[in-house]
Amino acid sequence: MFKSKYDVVVVGGGPSGSMAAWEAAKGGASVCMLEKDRDIGYPVRCGEAAGESGLKQFVDIKDSWVAERITGAKLGSPSGKLVDVEFKSETGFILNRRVFDYDLSRYAANAGAEVYTKAYVKNISNANGQVNGVVLDYLGEEKKILAKIVIGADGLTSRVGRWAGMKTQVRMKDMESALQYSVSNIDIEPNKMIMYVGKNHAPGGYLWVFPKGDKFANIGIGISGKYSKHKSAKKFLDEFMEREYPDAAILTTMCGGVPCGKPMRNPVSDGLMLVGDAAHQINPMTGGGIVSGMKAGWIAGQVAAEAIIKENYSVKMLNNYSDAMWKAFGKNYERFYKIKEAVHNLSDEDLDYIAEQVLSIPHNKRTLSSVFKAAVFKKPALIIDVLKVFAGV
Amino acid sequence: MINIKENRCDYCGACVTVCPVDCIEVRESSIMIDHPVCIDCDLCVEICPIDVLASNV
C-alpha cells in the first residue's frame, strides 16, 4: 500500500508519466505513479507510430515493442492517387503500445518508483497556493497523498491542470476527433504507412493505414472539431472501410481526441508540472505525441529530482522544465502548427495537383521534400513557414 | 440537456478536453456529466468520434 507522503506523485502511467517517474526516482526522489485503469498500456488509444531516432534517445529498443518497421509512406490524394515516397534517413516504427508502455513502467518501478493501478485521482490538494498532493479513489476508498511535486501525466481526461487553475481547454478547430480500428484480413504492403488527405477522406486531419504485421493494421482517422459536427469520425472511417477494405475483420475499436494546436507554453504552477497529452505536447501536423511526451516526462522528472534536492518547488524552479521543453520541441511544434494551417487551406484540387506533380518525378528521386516543393509551388506562402522551421528561427 | 448513450462509450475523454466548464468526468469505465454545471454548448456532442453524446431537445 502506498505511503501518505512522497517527494513526487505522478498522475498517469503512459509513456510521459513513466519517463517522469523513472527520471525522478533515478535522481533520488521518492516517487509514486498512479494509473486510473487496471492495466498499464491498456486500452491503447493511439496509432502507435514513432520514429526510431526519437525513441533511441531514452531507451534501447526491444524487438517486442516493434510490430512493423516503416521505410516509406504512401500519400493518398483526395481523388485516391497514391504517391509513394521512401524515407531517406529515418526509420519509423509501428509499436505495440501494450508491451511498450508496460516495459517503461517497469523501468520506472525498477528505479524505485512505486506504481499503483486502479488509482483514480479525483482532485489535488493545496496549501498556501501551492499544489501539495492528490485525492484519489483507490479500490473503493478515498485516500490522500501528500507530495512536494505533482506531475500531471493524465492525458486527455486530464483535469489536474484545470483544478490548479490552468487553461487546458482545447479550441474545437485545434482538436482532432479520432477513431481507429485494429483490423485483420487485409491485403497490405508491409513497411509502408498510408496517409490519405482531403476533405472527402478526413477534413482538417488525415486518415491512416499503419501496417502491424501480416494482414494486420491500425486504420484510423482524425478530423478537426471544426468539421465533426455534421459528420462524425466514425461515419468517415466506416465509409472508407466499406470502400477500401470491405472484408476486413475489425478486432478492436478505439477512439480519442488529439489536441493538435500549439503545446501549452507554461505547463507549470507552484508544485505542479503537466507533461504529455495533458500539456498538448503533440506534433500538430502528424498528431504524434509519443516521443515528445517522453521527452517532456524525461525533462520534468529530472527537474523534479533537482527541485527536491534544492527544496524549491516554486513555479520559478519548475520553469526550468518548461524552458527546456520549449527548446527541445515546443518551439518547433508552434511552427508546425503554422504549416498545418497553411496545408489545410489547400483545396482538394490543389492536393490532387500536387500529387500529380510528384507522381511525375521518377520513384527513386521522389522524397518528402519533393512533395513539399510541389506544395510550395501551389501555395508560395508555405515556403516562409517551412523555411523558418528548417532554419530554426 | 446532454444525453449519454453509455453502452456505446469508449471512455476516451475527448469530450473532457473541449468542455468549457469542466462538467464531464471520465473514469476507466464510467462517464458522468454534472448537469447543473453544464451549459448545453454541445461541444462534447460535436467532438465525440462515435456519436455517444446527443443533445436532448
Describe the 3D structure.
Chain A has 393 residues and is an alpha/beta fold. Chain A folds into three domains: 5-46 and 98-170 and 261-332, FAD/NAD(P)-binding domain (3-Layer(bba) Sandwich); 68-94 and 172-258, D-Amino Acid Oxidase, Chain A, domain 2 (2-Layer Sandwich), CATH 3.30.9.10; 340-391, no CATH class. In chain A, 34% of the residues lie in helices and 28% in strands. Chain A has ten helices and 18 strands. Chain A has helices at residues 15-26, 52-56, 97-110, 160-163, 233-244, 290-310, 315-344, 348-359, 368-378, 381-391, and strands at residues 5-11, 31-34, 49-51, 66-70, 72-76, 82-86, 92-95, 114-116, 119-127, 130-138, 141-152, 175-184, 192-196, 206-211, 216-224, 249-259, 268-269, 272-274. In chain A, strands 1, 2, 8, 9, 10, 11, 17 and 18 form an eight-stranded mixed beta sheet that branches. In chain A, strand 1, helix 1 and strand 2 form a beta-alpha-beta unit. By secondary structure, chain B is α+β, with helices and mostly antiparallel strands. Chain B has a single domain (2-55), classed as Alpha-Beta Plaits, CATH 3.30.70.20. Chain B has helices spanning 14-18, 43-47; strands at residues 2-4, 24-27, 30-33, 53-55. In chain B, the strands form two sheets. Chain B has a two-stranded antiparallel ribbon. In chain B, strands 2-3 form a two-stranded antiparallel ribbon. Chain B starts with a strand and ends with a strand. The model of chain B has no long low-confidence stretch (mean pLDDT 94). The chains are: A alpha/beta (393), B alpha+beta (57). The interface between A and B is medium-sized, with 34 and 22 residues.
